[in-house]
Amino acid sequence: MATGQPYTRLIRRLESIGALSEESRHFISQLPMTVRSYKTNQDILREGDVPTQCCLVVDGYLCRHKMANGSKRQIISFHIPGDMPDLQSLHLTRLDHNISTLGPAAVAFIPHAALREMLPRSRELTHAFWRETLVDAAMFREWVVNLGQREALARVSHILCEMTLRLQAIGLAREFTFALPWTQGDLGDACGISPVHVNRVIQNLRARGAIEWHAKVIKILNWEELKSIGDFSPEYLHLRGEHHDTRIEAD
User: Fold this and answer.
1) Which of 122, 143, 164 is the last residue before a domain boundary?
2) Cα dihedral 8, 215, 232, 148 sign
């Protein structure tokens, strides 16, 4: 498998939740992909769009979000390299949310027609993409619990734990350190709190010795403490053994 190609991100993501054969990797490598670069806070897709292609995050970060009362944004998921945030558009014609960048990003577009041609040829990939959509649903359920039942400090901690493991699984969280382009407003829109409240939470986590957060770089100083504060258990991510919580604790 060639490295540095857009499809390698997708293969790595799929292999973090299930094994792939060499044949499946080859099928993915043959998918036509058109890569485009985007600026910060730029829409990739908007609610009501009828996509004819799926997007794959190659570099940077995207978010799904909905607008309430015409002006209030609720971020409902974060997406990292290797994710396909609109995979459901293969079967659900009209998009019911927005997908936008968080910082500069590169996105590869894969025609629906190419995916529909590939999947019947590979039962393994059909199950792999189905598994990916099921994991996405599991993550959404956990976000509902996070917003509905946890206090602000736990909400932020939980999301930081989730991002640590997801980025670690694709090799982007070495030694508990990773870069995120979020603003405090972005994190507030994901947690249902104000940017001022986010700032207080971050200061609290720093005071507890759980994290360092300088500019756009986050370092987890005390993983067990952050997990405890966030009431975090990684099962809902359904990562394979080598990408699971036990690995990051051993790093």
Assistant:
1) 143
2) negative
Q: How far is CA 135 from CA 52, 113, 195, in A?
A: 23, 24, 29
DSSP 183: -
Helices (H) and strands (E) in the chain, counts: 9, 8
Residue 215: predicted pLDDT: 86
pTM score above 0.90: yes
Return averaged pLDDT per consecutive 10 residues of the chain, 251 residues in all: 79 96 97 97 96 97 93 95 96 96 97 97 97 97 97 98 96 93 94 96 97 94 98 96 52 40
For residues 162 and 222, state if they share a domain: yes
The residue behind tokens 């500069």 is 104
Looking at the chain, list the stretches that DSSP marks H as alpha helix, in order from N- to C-terminal side.
6-17, 22-29, 112-118, 123-149, 152-169, 184-191, 195-207, 223-230, 245-250
The alpha-carbon radius of gyration of the chain (Å, integer) is 18
Structure tokens at 17: 């939740």
Element at 54 (helix H, strand E): strand 53-68
CATH number at residue 159: 1.10.10.10
Cβ atoms 188, 194 nearer than 8 A: yes
Q: Are residues 102 and 22 in the same domain?
A: yes
CATH number at residue 43: 2.60.120.10
Domain carrying residue 131: 6-143
Give the length of the chain: 251
- Residue holding tokens 């997801």? 166
